[in-house]
Specification:
CATH superfamily: P-loop containing nucleotide triphosphate hydrolases
GO molecular function: GTP binding; GTPase activity
Radius of gyration: 16 Å
Order of helices and strands: HEHEHEH
Strand content: 5-15%
Number of strands: 3
Pfam families: Ras
Keywords: GTP-binding, Nucleotide-binding
Number of helices: 4
C-alpha cells in the first residue's frame, strides 16, 4: 500500500467497525514484506489493537524455487507468528489460487475473536 493511501487507511482503521485486517505483501517483493513488520503492523496495533489479522502473500504464481529474491513460505510463517496473525495464506489472483481461502480465513479469524463482555453496572 502506498503512502498516498495512508490517510484513507487511517480513517478506516479508526472507524471502530473493522472486523479483520488482510495484511498483504507481494511474494516477489521483499520491501513489501518488510513493510508489514516495520510500517503496517505497528499502525494497526496502534489504532485497532484487538482486530484479528490474516497475513496474505500475493503473486504466488511468480515464486521461483530457491530464489533469494522471493519471500519463502517459511519466512511468511515466521512473520505470522511474530505479529500474532490468525493465519497466513499465499494466493495468486492471476492463477486464481487460494483466493477463497483468504476470505474463509478472515471469517474464521472474526469468529475466533473473543466476544467483548457486556459492561456491568454496579449500584452502591
Amino acid at each position: 500500500m502506498s503512502n498516498s493511501l495512508r490517510p484513507l487507511k487511517i480513517t478506516i482503521v479508526g472507524d471502530g467497525m473493522t472486523n479483520c485486517f488482510l495484511l498483504c505483501y507481494s511474494i516477489s517483493s521483499r520491501a513489501s514484506f518488510e513493510n508489514i513488520k516495520s510500517k503496517w503492523w505497528p499502525e494497526i496495533r496502534h489504532f485497532s489493537n484487538n482486530v484479528p489479522v490474516v497475513l496474505v502473500g500475493t503473486k504466488l504464481d511468480l515464486r521461483i524455487a530457491n530464489s533469494e529474491k522471493f519471500v519463502t513460505t517459511t519466512e511468511g510463517r515466521r512473520l505470522r507468528k511474530e505479529i500474532h496473525a490468525h493465519s497466513l495464506v499465499e494466493c495468486s489472483a492471476k492463477k486464481k489460487l487460494h483466493l477463497n481461502t483468504v476470505f474463509e480465513e478472515a471469517v474464521r479469524a472474526v469468529e475466533k475473536k473473543p466476544k467483548n463482555k457486556p459492561h456491568q453496572c454496579v449500584v452502591l
